[in-house]
Amino acid sequence: MSTPSPADFAGQHITVAGLGVSGISAARALAGLGARVTVVDGGDGDKQRAAARELAAEEITVRLGDGATLPEGTDLVVTSPGWKPDSPLFAAAAAAGVDVVGDVEIAWRLRGPDAAAWLGVTGTNGKTTTVRMLASILAAEGLHTAAVGNIGTPIVDVVLGQGQDGAQPYDVLAVELSSYQLHWAPSLRAHSAVVLNLAPDHLDWHGSMQAYAADKGRIYEGNTVACVYNAADKATEDLVREADVEEGCRAIGFTLGTPGPSQLGVVEGILVDRAFVENRQQQAQELAEVSDIAPGSGTPAPHNIANALAAAALARAFGVRPAAVRDGLRAFHPDAHRIQHVAERDGVTYIDDSKATNTHAAEASLAAYEHIVWIAGGLAKGATFDELVQKSAARLRGAVLIGADRALIREALARHAPDVPVVDLDRTDTGAMSEAVREAARLAEPGDTVLLAPACASMDMFVNYNKRGEAFADAVGELTARDH
């Protein structure tokens, strides 16, 4: 089969499903390549109509609301990540013999003969942090790189912009990939890739845990150098075993403990490599100190050490020197609302991990601290909390619950941590956060951590998790201001 090229899209009638960031990016890119593009979206609000007017000015047809059906004569459907596989539009495409792919697949098909290698990152949690760590390490090596994909930078735009207008071509791309994107990217073949972890998530979209895991595992298909897995999460290693990879591609594990051969791990506060060394049976290469991970923010949480090891493994698979791993980790600064130190007051530390929007992320966050007053709650999205509470009960000094589905957490605490004091705030207005922080401060003792790790989505009370984290930080600031 010949390698697709941009010219292959000229004259095709392509239907793009969704008016989100990736959909608009794909529509503009394909129209620029000479395709006849129609965008369909089930919404018909002010936001969709404004986007439709912009695209119409670029001779891109947009059909909204009831018009979001398959246009006659469609040659290819390009879907945005949020559209479910069982959508009627895709059933119509299948009946018409029309392929459905995602924006990542289009980007992969558009790469030129000298395209940058892709280092892929997926997993239930930690993707964005790992991709940004990886990009920082690659940049420290002097490579021209970018963090792209699900992180927010449409990969189609990056691929089409390669070398245009005198821009320096990329040497390698750090690519964050969601399970949605992987589902619709059958041709993707990364240089190396990692599945950081697997826990139930987005099961309403995928239909089952097995289907979700299978889509995550697609990132390993056709890898040429390394399939990186989490030694503490057997499911990720199983995906490596099942993958069809290029001859010579290696399985590389990462662990928070002492690494075995073909692994990266931690020895006495040092990140070490026993995978990309000449004699991995007897040698280990020092890469960095644990304190190099987000320096200045205190001891990094265990899951961020794991993220750093995964990023280091991918970088080493690409030939990056040990010194660049250290320098890249030192230069990296975590995004807001991810284990973010907000303040210390009366011996109590306040940590914002509003990004912990599911139980798996909250579990990792809770595991990072010894004595915790936990602020939790929001939209559960079908999650259950018994296992999370069971694993974390010994660390809890108290809990303050907010949000629409807080009763589910309260009941789990009653079953598995009955001695933990619980404050149940019967309100879902945004001002509840100030009361939650005051109650948490009341329960906390010197040496404790007040931790916002909601284990739930934010949309019952806040626009997004960023606004929830900002409300927490503001409330902590109010608490401090009252003492002065």
Overview of this protein structure:
The protein starts with 12 loop residues before the first strand and ends with a helix. The radius of gyration is 24 Å and the shape is globular. By secondary structure, the chain is an alpha/beta fold. Helix 5 (127-140) crosses helix 12, helix 9 (209-217) crosses helix 10 (234-242) and helix 16 crosses helix 17. Strand 7, helix 6 and strand 8 (172-176) form a beta-alpha-beta unit. The chain has helices spanning 21-32, 46-56, 88-95, 103-110, 127-140, 155-160, 179-183, 203-206, 209-217, 234-242, 302-317, 322-331, 359-366, 386-392, 406-416, 432-443, 465-481; strands at residues 13-17, 36-41, 61-64, 76-79, 99-102, 117-122, 145-149, 172-176, 192-195, 226-230, 250-254, 263-267, 270-273, 285-289, 340-345, 348-352, 372-376, 396-401, 422-424, 449-452. Helices cover 35% and strands 20% of the residues. The strands form three sheets. Strands 7-8-6-9-10-11-12-13-14 form a nine-stranded mixed β-sheet, with helices on both faces. Strands 15-16-20-17-18-19 form a six-stranded mixed β-sheet, with helices on both faces.
